[in-house]
From TrEMBL:
Keywords: Signal. It comes from Microbacterium ulmi. CDD domains: PBP2_PhnD_like. Residues 1-23 form the signal peptide. It comes from the Bacteria. One of its GO terms (biological process) is transmembrane transport. Belongs to the phosphate/phosphite/phosphonate binding protein family. GO terms for cellular component: ATP-binding cassette (ABC) transporter complex. This is Phosphate/phosphite/phosphonate ABC transporter substrate-binding protein.
Length: 326
């Protein structure tokens, strides 16, 4: 990945405007550099990706789109993409101008379509997170007695809540049914598959993949016994605990991947620098309100939106390259 191509917008409007303006001068082919900045649209589409069940996601995000509409004076509509890659392609095709994207797709949107990565998320003060291996068969995968933390069970040191942990145990995945998200998911596919590959498993033949569409579906596949093992972000069990209060006892986390850069927000290059700066500022401001924090928590478990660090996406690009997912 050429990280120089990623341009950061500060959460502060003045700094954001300055950084975008400087980046706009970097290429003679850029219409902004030629003094022909794009005209701003009369409406914007915000693309959401299904990290959990799609049902109701647009309604959950309504306070966010309403806030942006009021702050920007432009109607903002939320849509749920069918999967991670669809959101990237929607931005490339001009069908969406704002994308809440996982780290791989942030890199792809920038690398393929020149989208500007403006913000990355914080969760409880952390800017990275591990993918987790979950099981309903701790006797097989746990090399020690599971321990309880916040009502949920962990083993093999995974209760440290920071990766990597317990990866010596993942060779036992061989022969299992495994709930797997699509190949665009860092925590639901890329990092767990990379860990299995590096552990010596043939990721095409050594286990049976059970395709799932979202992280909560992976948890439920393990909970319901449709798969013996599942992949997800940490800790996706919290998404389903309301409907399955015993999920933390029946679904045990036995390993954590290396840390993954948090997801974030990308903006279409077709928007003017001024509008991109205003959107970045509005989103950061929204995340700093009590209501905004609550809404972002309910959408993606986000506690805050902060200025992006483009270099953090290099590790995702390297992982994708090893799995042929560029």
């Amino acid at each position: 990945m050429n990280s120089k191509r990623i341009r950061i917008a500060s959460a502060v409007a003045a700094a954001a405007l300055a950084s975008v303006a400087l980046a706009g001068c970097a290429s003679d082919a850029d219409p902004e550099a030629a003094g022909t900045a794009p005209a701003d649209p009369t409406s914007l589409v915000l693309a959401l990706v299904p990290s959990q069940d799609q049902a109701g996601l647009v309604d959950t995000a309504a306070p966010l789109t309403d806030f942006l509409t009021e702050e920007l004076g432009i109607t903002v509509t939320g849509v749920v993409s069918k999967d991670y890659q669809a959101a990237v392609e929607a931005m490339g095709a001009g069908q969406a101008q704002i994308g809440f994207l996982p780290s791989l797709q942030l890199w792809q949107a920038n690398d393929r379509y020149g989208a500007e990565v403006v913000l990355q998320t914080e969760r409880n003060g952390n800017i990275t997170y591990p993918g987790q291996f979950m099981t309903n068969n701790p006797d097989k995968f746990c090399e020690d007695e599971p321990v309880e933390r916040d009502g949920k069970l962990f083993c093999n040191g995974a209760d440290a809540l920071q990766g990597p942990a317990g990866l010596d145990s993942i060779t036992k995945v061989k022969g299992s049914k495994v709930a797997v998200l699509g190949p665009g998911s860092p925590a639901g596919y890329i990092y767990p598959m990379l860990a299995l590959k590096e552990a010596g498993l043939d990721i095409d033949n050594d286990f049976e993949s059970v395709p799932v569409t979202a992280n909560d579906a992976s948890v439920l596949a393990v909970y319901n016994g449709d798969a013996e093992v599942g992949f997800s972000f940490w800790d996706a069990r919290d998404i389903v605990v309301k409907d399955t209060p015993d999920v933390g006892q029946k679904v045990v986390v036995f390993a954590l991947t290396d840390e993954i850069p948090n997801d974030g927000v990308a903006l279409s290059k077709d928007l003017s620098p001024e509008l991109r700066a205003r959107i970045a500022t509005a989103l950061a401001d929204f995340s700093n309100t009590e209501e905004g924090s609550t809404v972002l928590q309910s959408i993606y478990s986000i506690t805050k939106l902060a200025p992006a660090d483009p270099s953090s996406l290099d590790v995702v690009a390297r992982a994708a390259q090893q799995l042929g997912l560029q």
